[in-house]
Amino acid sequence: MAVASRGVIAVASGLNRALRKAKIMFPELMKSNRDRLISRPWLAASLVGGLLLVQLSQGWAAQPPNWLVDGAFNARFEQSAAVNLAVPQPDGKILVAGPFHSLNSQTRAGLARLNADGSTDTDFQFSVPPGFLILQWEVQSLAVQTNGPVLVGGRIMIYDSSFLSRWQGVVRLLPNGALDTNFMAGLELGGEPLALALDGEGRVLVAGSGIATNGASAEPEAVYPNLVRLLSNGLPDPTFNPGAGANAPIRCLAILGNGKILAAGDFTQFNGAAVGRLCRLETSGALDPSFSVSQPDGNIHALAVEAGGRILVGGDFDYFGPTDYRRRLARLSANGALEPAFAHTPLYAVKAVTVLPDGSLVAGGWYTFTIFNGYPTEHLAYAIRYAADGTALAVQRWAEANSEIRCLAPAASGVILGGVFMQTEGGGPIRHGLCLASSNLEPQPAFAPVVARQATVARLALQSDGQLVVGGKFNLVNGLLRTNLVRINRQGQLDASFQPSGAVAEGAVRKVLLGAGGLIWAAGDRFSCLASNGATLFTTNISALALALQPDGKALVGGMSGSLPAGLQRWQTNGVPDAGFSPGTGVAGALPTGEIEQILDLAVQPDGRILAAGNFRAFNGQPCAQIIRLLVNGTRDNSFAAEPLASSFPAIAPAIYRLLPRPDGKIFAGGYFAGTSNRVANGLALYQDNGALDESWPTNANLGSANLYELALDARGNLLAGGNLQVFSAGYFNNQIVLLGSSGGVDPSLDLSVNSDFYGDPFYPYERQPFVRAILFSATNEVYLAGAFSRLGSAFNPADNLERWSLARVTFTVPMAPVAPTLYWERLSGGDLRIFWPSNQANFTLESAPALGLGTAWQPIAPPATLNGGEWSATVAPAAARQFFRLRYP
Fold this sequence. Notes:
Elements: E1 3-9, H1 15-25, E2 44-48, E3 51-55, E4 66-69, E5 77-80, E6 85-88, E7 94-97, E8 102-103, E9 106-107, E10 111-114, E11 133-144, E12 150-159, E13 166-173, E14 192-198, E15 204-209, E16 227-230, E17 250-255, E18 261-265, E19 269-270, E20 273-274, E21 278-281, E22 300-305, E23 311-315, E24 319-320, E25 324-325, E26 329-332, E27 349-355, E28 361-367, E29 371-372, E30 375-376, E31 380-386, E32 392-397, E33 404-411, E34 414-420, E35 434-437, E36 451-454, E37 456-462, E38 468-473, E39 476-477, E40 480-481, E41 485-488, E42 509-514, E43 520-524, E44 527-530, E45 536-540, E46 544-549, E47 555-559, E48 568-571, E49 599-604, E50 610-614, E51 618-619, E52 622-623, E53 627-630, E54 655-661, E55 667-672, E56 684-687, E57 707-713, E58 719-729, E59 732-740, E60 753-755, E61 771-777, E62 782-788, E63 791-793, E64 802-803, E65 807-813, E66 823-828, E67 833-838, E68 845-849, E69 859-860, E70 866-867, E71 871-876, E72 883-888
Antiparallel strand pairs: 1-66, 2-3, 2-72, 4-65, 5-36, 5-39, 6-7, 7-10, 8-9, 8-36, 11-12, 12-13, 14-15, 15-16, 17-18, 18-21, 19-20, 22-23, 23-26, 24-25, 27-28, 28-31, 29-30, 31-32, 33-34, 34-35, 37-38, 38-41, 39-40, 42-43, 43-44, 44-45, 46-47, 47-48, 49-50, 50-53, 51-52, 54-55, 55-56, 57-58, ...
């Protein structure tokens, strides 16, 4: 094949520069053979007749990073959880429910089944069909049918993929925990089923608050009897008619041997008749007039029926009737007559009662030493076992403040206790809200399930050796008992040599910083300084919300004035406040919303001046915005004058939670706010060095009413922001974390979402949703994310999410295009162009266009290039006027 002429298609950094180089530096370029001018992988070149032109192109744009949850790092942070319900099955297994997320380090969202030895029954796990949406899942009642299915009542709302079918209030699960879609309870929306009971014919009694059958709210005078009966398929039983029913919640149900129904709770009337918070009903739902009870002066929370028909009730009452003293616990005859009192019952509230196979009785609840304005300041879990004659046989108390027994159930070898507790006063074995006790109420050592919920990891600090210091509110790390401040290695394993002593980790740790000489500063419910091995150098009772270190090693501590003078102090490494730091009265007031003014974050600028931010509106008696700057001595720097922020809801004070100074001197501020009086700024603002808002930063409209708790810059200058937020953008969705480019636009390359397996109440979403509290970049293309969550992964592929319990490591790589091969041309004797380049890679596409400019329509060359001996080539027919070529990757 004859060649008339040949040359190189050059690449340069811009049109003018390229023309200058082509004409001045290489005047003989078109005559040379395979000469190479410049090669830049993100630029393209053009060839026009016998002249060489170069133009910036998007053909070699830098590739977005890939974000992947690191499978080699899986540290699990949890908090001991509560058990509200425990129901033994005939086969010895035990159903438990409550506000927990895991059982024995296996994910279980509020409902689980244990084997008799306390291990997790892996054959049972709540699930719904693919495409179904769980909007609410809060279990409040349980019942087991004879053939194995489980009835679950509570705040439950589940939709199918079409949103045309809804399961609510009461659902039935198959023996393996899967939703039985054939059972659909005909209940009115919004009720709370607090009790379930099965009668001898398999019908389901449902009691609680706001309970009615479907259609009640459409009636002219809606009636919510708080008690309904469903057929085995979930439809309302038309033969059951309680009339107006109970005038307040029904909390307990029991089916008697003759089919009659006992109901107890807060109500004082049933179908218009006065009853004493306890009544007996006929199988038709009508009130049984032969059963009469004196009215207690408090509500009934627990109910059990003894073998002989006598009835045991517990609650928060003192008297049954005007004169009969029955503190929190009473026994009635089968017809409702009050029987003699039990031995002294010190409980302040009885939450559960049960009858054991030997005829003895157990009551559980809580006891308190201190009552203030009629309410306990704290209380202790308490259980008592009584003989059948009411004599106390055993007493057990637990040591944790605000512990309590919430449920009891008989077991073959003792009694099951559930609630909020960890250790008995005698220093027995640790139990996480669930234990099997012997006849003397001592926890049995072989039964030790770990019931847990997602914890909060609030702050991270990365040591030079790669180990991570972690602070937050947790007491379980990788299933081991560790509290609030720990150190882990790169694999996520605990550093056993690091165990802070004394009271350092007794309360939540909100801030952690590393100081010179290996010092570890921790702030939260206490303020402390530790040596690198965890030994306490000093600790104080100061409750701190903000922490920053100065270059001289001193620590700035911020919070509220109630626990910290002026809400701001500076401390020396010897544990003594710095007398040379004087912020005056600092933040010392209350806001119109009733909130106390607080300093929530601090940052030290390179010149030593101090940035302070929070929800305050005055400093040292003078009005100010929620962000101010102080001089090194603690006095206010008046050269920094920001405008006060406002919030979207007047009942919630605007607040800045996080400050992030940029290298250029500007300052990012994240929190909960809507902007100033003349500029919108949703949760994120950029301040100039004088306190003015930088108007070049966008208004972040797509952040909505976000709560931004954390900000971090990556090496490219992009901003990673985390908190309690959802971000919707064109083709983009994220939970709790968002990546913003250097100009403020959402960067869609971050396909990452932070989620939780806890299905809460959508009407109170803030306390239920996951969030991100800490973001920490390492020097090796890694970022640590921490907060309160249980799953992490793609927003668009939730099935691919990985379990990560409040701490995860994410790796990110920026794929680089291979070195751009030099593009050559040859004009063949027939006038065609042969475009070729040396490479063995098959990911390049040769494209052409008739013109250059914004929106250039590049088209692949047809037929495509072919590979021959390490060289790709394509033959192109000559164009009428001009033609531009580029290689695209990928």
